[in-house]
């Protein structure tokens, strides 16, 4: 992979060119001075500065000002065009990029937490860890939602932009979306791997300490015995127990509903992102195809507009005809009515 | 020596050098193709390049918040357009990369145009060729013969391109050329001149065994591009036409609108990458497997009820979507191929072709051709193809029947311009022109070889033919390539066996040759071969080349798709 840099040569030549331009303009100014011509309007700004140095009379300064203002109206125009701030959505892009980097960091953190939690289980305060993991996971999901909203905002903001800017924003969106997509894919994968390992551990745990089954069966037996014994009704204690249970059940239901909702939300986002992401491996993902078809699609759009215009005109004509027809009928009726 | 990787590295480096921020990639017509051969748009979007523009396009808007990466060939036109651009810059900063050596005068023109000092970087990155595969590059020059000498513009483009390719893989080679071809000699001399002129650039670390650049001429082997092919890539190119990794399926009956143009790129399509050198039968079974896997997956995709399934769906959705695209694409392509094979009786035609190319039984071949001529399904191009092969094969045979076959072509109602090609190909690459032993029948060693081969029997009668290039390269690797036929340019000679070989074929290569080189790369450890050609030919594009070389030939209006003829 050989390369050759021409930057230095280029900059040298550029500086030379700037210098020679200065010298040239100086010469021009000197010539002008010699000929004493008063019309200095067309000369460029640098030229004027040099003149101001060389002869600092008030009149020449006034002349300078005139030259500055009247140089050409177009210069101001290009200046304003150049100085135009980048469109609003650019901030959005930066925000998303920042957010993405944060998500990456968080995912890393979570996975280290996962590892920690799985490999070095502590007997006592593993609840804290679990809690932290839960919070982090929620955070990440929220960040994904936020990113998704921002991506959509970019699209919304660029709606009024020119066709080329729209092209840029479409590309920006698709790139960000695919980044998000792969990121969320990674996240899901690490999540499910974690869950799998967790359940696996629990199973092993039950295998080794075979306590759960006999305990529960004995509990059940006891329960049955109890039920047999107090068959006629609940004691107040039992009532309370049942109430507690029902509260617990409803709480759990809510939690599950929440989880399902969040998953559904993520699913929605995912589908949305997939729509924005260009189909990889198809013609739509070819650079040359897109360049060639950008101009074509503009032309097509124009044609369609023209067609729509035509239809509308036709519609107007139709209305006229209908109106006239109605008028004719009405007049006919009036005529008949008058005659009879 | 992977040319795809070389181009990729160049492109990613030029994007990296401009630092973070949104970028636009400004290219010309040729560099657009160069970049799109190796990178998909979505890949480049990941590098914060959000806009792709052609330098010619006039309707570009001012976007000062974008950095501009210009990747251009150093042509007069481009320099002019770029200097106009720099006088009225539309983007914030400019990073300019030329795909080849640019003259100081042109740099000066640009420096003078850069009044607002927007240029940050100017470099030469030598990605000046289309990388078709890891070991194949081309320039998409459809005709490089003018009469039997170089077309001037093609020559200068190829000299630039080949030297650029040498720089890209960092090789300063010894040059050998085909002695019988005036054009090969001229190209070799021009490349040598270029290397001498830019000696500082070509000053790489010396390797033990210097690399070899071998320049050969298509006229020594006119047979290979005339044969019907049976490996996937070659077959698609022969029947449908691959153009810069794109296949146009618009003419295929009953095809979906989304599939009017499909991409076949080994870089972005795993199935294609695994199968492009497989033969048609294997493709059939592989595509069946792919289908089965797909239906299995799609069934599991259909029921998304529980949360676990939902999660699984989310994880697999992108791959699933990609796979569904791949499946529908390849099923369509293979379906069309097999339709054409059936419609044009290609099995029998190909058998006859291979017999003409590889065996020496005049009367049997003639009978076979005549029998095939009786068939309704024989297409015009196939008929002419058979007669051309016959004419090349038995030009010197005492009782050949070329005239009779031509008469039969006319009676069959073959277009006159196609019939004329029989004469044209004899002018182009007849017996008097060819120096290599294409049909290897006089040599006693060859005869014994053939005898043993005959005893073994051939594995596949449709792929008996081996291109001449394979034999040439084999001799080169073994150090047995005759110096009289392929002399060195200059006095230096290679004593050892070569390791890095770059072959360039004037007048275009074929995918069959690409396959041979691929196989040789695999079977000879320590030897790396890269194949280049002015273009990648199929039969119809090759006939165009022949007709432009021989005066009074025909020029077909279209390039390739067989579907138009059915």
Describe this structure in words.
The complex is a heterodimer of chains A (340) and B (566). Chain A has 10 helices and 1 strand, in the order βαααααααααα. With 340 residues, chain A is an all-alpha fold. Chain A is flat, with a radius of gyration of 39 Å. The N and C termini of chain A lie far apart (101 Å). Helix content of chain B is 48%, strand content 14%. Chain B is built from 20 helices and 16 strands. In chain B, the strands form 4 sheets. Chain B has a 6-stranded mixed beta sheet, with helices on both faces. In chain B, strand 4, helix 5 and strand 5 form a beta-alpha-beta unit. The longest helix of chain B is centred in the middle third of the chain and has 37 residues, at 307-343. At the A-B interface, strand 1, helix 1, helix 4, helix 7 and helix 9 of A face helix 1, helix 2, helix 3, strand 2 and strand 3 of B.
Summary of the model, kept short:
Chain A: Belongs to the syntaxin family. Among the domains of chain A are: 7-83, no CATH class; 89-207 and 262-276, Methane Monooxygenase Hydroxylase, Chain G, domain 1, CATH 1.20.58.
Strand content of chain B: 5-15%
Task: Kindly identify the CATH topology of the domain at 132-222 and 464-535 in chain B.
Answer: Rossmann fold
Instruction: Provide the gyration radius of chain B in Å.
Output: 26 Å
Summed over residues and divided by their number, the pLDDT of chain A gives a mean of: 73
- Termini separation of chain A: 101 Å
- Level of helix content of chain A? over 70%
Count of helices of chain A? 10
CATH class placement of the domain at 132-222 and 464-535 in chain B: Alpha Beta
Which CATH class of the domain at 89-207 and 262-276 in chain A?
Answer: Mainly Alpha
SSE string of chain A? EHHHHHHHHHH
Most residues in contact, chain pair and counts: A-B, 65 and 77 residues
């Amino acid at each position: 992979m050989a390369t050759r840099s021409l930057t230095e040569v280029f900059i040298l030549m550029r500086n030379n060119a700037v210098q020679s331009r200065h010298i040239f303009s100086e010469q021009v100014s000197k010539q002008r001075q010699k000929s004493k011509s008063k019309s200095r309007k067309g000369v460029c700004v640098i030229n004027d500065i040099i003149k101001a140095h060389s002869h600092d009379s008030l009149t020449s300064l006034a002349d300078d000002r005139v030259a500055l203002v009247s140089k050409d109206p177009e210069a101001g125009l290009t200046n304003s065009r150049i100085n135009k701030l980048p469109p609003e959505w650019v901030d959005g892009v930066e925000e998303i990029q920042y957010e993405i980097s944060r998500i990456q960091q968080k995912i890393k953190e979570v996975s280290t937490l996962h590892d920690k939690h799985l490999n070095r289980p502590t007997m006592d305060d593993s609840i804290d860890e679990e809690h932290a993991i839960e919070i982090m996971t929620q955070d990440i999901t929220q960040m994904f939602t936020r990113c998704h909203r921002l991506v959509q905002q970019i699209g919304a903001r660029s709606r009024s932009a020119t066709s080329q800017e729209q092209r840029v924003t479409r590309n920006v969106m698709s790139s960000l979306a695919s980044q998000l997509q792969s990121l969320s894919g990674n996240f899901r994968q690490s999540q499910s791997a974690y869950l799998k390992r967790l359940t696996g551990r629990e199973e092993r745990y039950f295998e080794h300490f075979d306590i759960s089954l006999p305990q529960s069966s004995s509990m059940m037996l006891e329960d049955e015995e109890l039920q047999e014994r107090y068959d006629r009704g609940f004691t107040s204690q039992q009532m309370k127990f049942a109430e507690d249970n029902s509260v617990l059940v409803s709480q759990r239901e809510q939690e599950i509903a929440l989880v399902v909702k969040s998953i559904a939300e993520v699913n929605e986002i995912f589908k949305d992102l997939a729509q924005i992401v260009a189909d990889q491996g198809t013609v739509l993902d070819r650079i040359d195809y897109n360049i060639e078809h950008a101009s074509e699609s503009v032309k097509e759009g124009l044609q369609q507009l023209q067609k729509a215009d035509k239809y509308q005109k036709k519609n107007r004509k139709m209305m006229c005809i209908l109106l006239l027809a109605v008028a004719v009928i009405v007049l006919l009726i009036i005529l008949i009515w008058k005659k009879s | 020596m992977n040319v795809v990787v070389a181009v990729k590295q160049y492109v990613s480096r030029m994007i990296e050098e401009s630092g973070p921020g949104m970028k636009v990639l400004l290219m010309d017509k040729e560099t657009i193709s160069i970049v799109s051969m190796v990178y998909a748009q979505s890949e480049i979007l990941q590098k914060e390049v959000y806009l792709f523009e052609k330098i010619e396009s006039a309707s570009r808007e001012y976007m000062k918040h974008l950095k501009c990466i210009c990747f251009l060939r150093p042509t007069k036109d481009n320099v002019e357009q770029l200097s106009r651009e720099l006088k009225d810059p539309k983007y914030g900063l400019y990073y300019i990369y030329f795909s080849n050596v640019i003259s100081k005068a042109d740099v000066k023109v640009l420096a003078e145009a850069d009044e607002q000092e927007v240029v940050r970087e100017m470099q030469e990155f030598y990605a000046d060729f289309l990388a078709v595969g890891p070991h194949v590059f081309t320039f998409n020059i459809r005709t490089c013969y003018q009469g039997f000498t170089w077309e001037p513009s093609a020559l200068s483009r190829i000299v630039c391109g080949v030297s650029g390719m040498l720089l890209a893989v960092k090789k300063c080679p010894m040059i050998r050329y085909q002695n019988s071809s005036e054009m090969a000699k001229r190209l070799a001399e021009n490349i040598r001149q270029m290397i001498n002129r830019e000696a500082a650039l070509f000053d790489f670390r010396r390797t033990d065994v210097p690399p070899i650049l071998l320049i050969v001429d298509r006229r020594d082997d006119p047979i290979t591009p005339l044969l019907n092919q049976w490996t996937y890539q070659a077959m698609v190119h022969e029947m449908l036409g691959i153009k810069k990794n794109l296949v146009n399926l618009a003419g295929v009956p009953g095809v979906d609108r989304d599939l009017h143009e499909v991409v076949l790129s080994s870089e972005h399509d795993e199935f294609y990458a695994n199968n492009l050198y497989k033969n048609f039968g294997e493709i059939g079974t592989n595509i069946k497997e792919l289908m089965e896997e797909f239906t299995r997956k799609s069934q599991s995709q259909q029921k998304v009820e529980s949360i676990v399934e939902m999660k699984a769906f989310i994880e697999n959705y992108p791959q699933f979507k990609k796979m569904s695209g791949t499946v529908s694409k390849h099923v369509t392509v293979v379906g069309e191929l097999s339709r054409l094979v059936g419609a044009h009786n290609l099995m029998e035609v190909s058998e006859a072709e291979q017999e003409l190319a590889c065996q020496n039984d005049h009367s049997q071949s003639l009978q076979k051709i005549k029998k095939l001529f009786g068939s309704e399904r024989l297409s015009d191009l196939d008929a002419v193809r058979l007669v051309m092969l016959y004419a090349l094969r038995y030009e010197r045979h005492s009782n050949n029947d070329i005239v009779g076959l031509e008469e039969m072509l006319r009676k069959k109602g073959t277009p006159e311009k196609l019939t004329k090609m029989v004469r044209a190909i004899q002018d182009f690459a007849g017996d008097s022109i060819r120096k290599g032993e294409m049909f290897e029948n006089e040599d006693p060693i060859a005869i014994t070889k053939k005898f043993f081969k005959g005893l073994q029997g051939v594995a596949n009668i449709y792929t008996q033919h081996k291109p001449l290039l394979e034999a040439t390269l084999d001799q080169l690797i073994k150090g047995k390539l005759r110096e009289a036929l392929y002399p060195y340019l200059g006095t230096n000679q290679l004593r050892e066996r070569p390791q890095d070989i770059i072959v360039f074929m004037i007048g275009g290569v074929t995918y069959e040759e690409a396959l041979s080189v691929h196989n040789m790369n695999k079977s000879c450890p320590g030897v790396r071969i890269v194949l280049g050609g002015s273009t990648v030919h199929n039969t119809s594009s090759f006939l165009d080349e022949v007709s432009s070389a021989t005066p009074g030939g025909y020029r077909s209006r279209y390039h390739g798709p067989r579907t138009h003829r059915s």
